[in-house]
Automatic annotation (TrEMBL), chains A, B:
Protein name: TetR/AcrR family transcriptional regulator
SUPFAM superfamilies, per database record: Homeodomain-like
DNA-binding region(s), chain positions: 45-64
Domain HTH tetR-type: 22-82
Region span, Disordered: 1-22
Keywords: DNA-binding, Transcription, Transcription regulation
Coiled-coil region(s): none
PANTHER family with a match to the protein in the record: HTH-TYPE TRANSCRIPTIONAL REGULATOR BETI, HTH-TYPE TRANSCRIPTIONAL REGULATOR RUTR
UniProt superkingdom: Bacteria
One Gene Ontology MF term: transcription cis-regulatory region binding
Length: 204, 204
DNA sequence: TTTGAAAGTGAGCGATAGCTCATATTAATA
DNA sequence: TATTAATATGAGCTATCGCTCACTTTCAAA
């Protein structure tokens, strides 16, 4: 329970050099994910994570400086996967509507492991600013801004209000859908698309 | 840390009969609120709550069966205040646009104590279903449905998808605004209104 | 092989959390 | 004023948590 000052580090203290240690880190992260999505914060302890990963508590602390670091790494892992998909949009030519594709990716991602995604969203907000991953948020704003302008709508590149609003709309609707156990991704994506386009078009 | 089965009660174990005990309960709730909005979950312990409330830990447990019950009561307190404002809309004639009024109320409420509101939103999702207050959600859906139909838009009263989407949009945008430290309520309310009306009007 | 670094182990420490209960105080009732 | 129910107290119990460290095992380079 002790949380001395200067202890909130994000990065693993040791970088895996051999294959087996990489597997250990993966096992720890996956164990943490499974505990979180099955029982929430109850039972989400470092000892429980190590036990479920089939790894000793000592090994866990060889790679993570603290419990929050595990959660942060987990968030980063999911965000990287999401960002990888999003970054693929540009590669896949500009044939279809990139905004629509973006929404579909967000929906797909959130509904793949809904319980985990939702609890990580919550935990991300709870984590101290200096430990929580934040790259995704900035990258997303830029990307959304680009797509919105490409679609012919005006935006304010400076304060990025429009992009932030759109992201807030998507996140809000996708989160709610996960909460209510929705599973029809197409329908959900359509509704979100309506909200976003409606917001951009509305001239009241 | 023990959390035996059957211990997750929502209601205070004892109902205050004298004035002073009512004051005790209020002091506990306000102390919990202050701790939460000032330092988040760090330091949000029953002992700390009692100390800040100027009340003994024993008194705290006379009225609350556990820590979660305090948080739940706090959420309920805020939701009741919000609902009281919303219920006042109908009383205040149907002169202006009720949807717009509803949005303004939500914005005002969230930005009055933004840190507290945001952390309670998070905690509400984290709390076990059987202990978290849920009346507001149901009431809100009905109200929003009514306003939307009064404004001339079609809705599906059964699955309440439209109402839920609108609530998700409002919550998402208001939460994000609180996160980014926005304080201009009028501007924010206008943007949310655009999103909601846009969603309702968009025919894609 | 030898050898040293990398990886892995787990008993157990210090801290603190949630919570109880025997007791004291206060306020309403007779 | 005497009685009793309501309210308040806080030392301290137990459980568990995050985490350390002295130690063993495994692997790969020499």
């Amino acid at each position: 329970m002790s949380r001395p000052a200067g202890k909130t580090l994000l990065k693993p203290r040791k970088t895996p050099r051999q294959a087996r240690s990489g597997a250990t880190v993966d096992a720890i992260l996956e164990a943490a994910a499974r505990i979180l999505e099955r029982s929430g914060f109850d039972g989400y302890s470092t000892n429980a994570i190590a036990r479920r990963a089939g790894v000793s508590i000592g090994s866990l602390y060889q790679y993570f400086p603290g419990k929050d670091a595990i959660t942060a790494s987990l968030i980063e892992r999911e965000q990287d996967a999401l960002w990888k998909d999003i970054a693929g949009i540009e590669a896949a030519a500009g044939g279809s509507d990139p905004l629509r594709t973006l929404i579909m990716i967000a929906v797909t991602h959130q509904l793949r492991r809904p319980a985990l995604a939702r609890i990580l969203d919550v935990e991300e907000k709870r984590l101290p600013r200096d430990i929580a991953p934040s790259r995704l948020a900035e990258q997303l704003i830029i990307t959304v801004n680009t797509y919105v302008e490409a679609a012919g709508y005006e935006t304010d590149m400076e304060d990025a209000t429009t992009a932030r609003d759109i992201i807030a709309i998507i996140r809000g609707m996708v989160d709610a859908a996960g909460q209510y156990g929705e599973h029809d991704m197409q329908t959900l994506a359509n509704r979100i698309y309506r909200a976003v386009v409606g917001y951009l078009s509305c001239e009241i």
